[in-house]
Amino acid sequence: MRPKALGATHVGVWLGGGAVYHNAPGHGEHVSSVADFANGASVAVVRTNADASTVVARVRTRLVTPQSYDVVNNNCEHAANAVVTGRAVSPQLQAVVIIAIGVLMLYCIARRL
Question: Are the beta carbons of 90 and 78 closer than 8 angstroms?
Fold first, then answer.
């Protein structure tokens, strides 16, 4: 993962040999070099207990028909989690939605006061 704007992180899956699977605007799901993934920023590696052969098989399956980047339905986190855990989820997006709902609720309450 590498930092992006507003505290968000760009997430990918290190495949070994300097290759990273990720999903990016304008490129969709693809494999690139670590340098291209980093885009000049530092990269942090988060280890998982995922089975490497399962992850590689899922990456290969997804790359048969790679999907475009979609911030809501198929962002970098969705793609990375799909191949690592089998579930396409985006905790960063979920956090933004929860915060937005909280702000909206506070706004509505404040208007009634």
Answer: yes
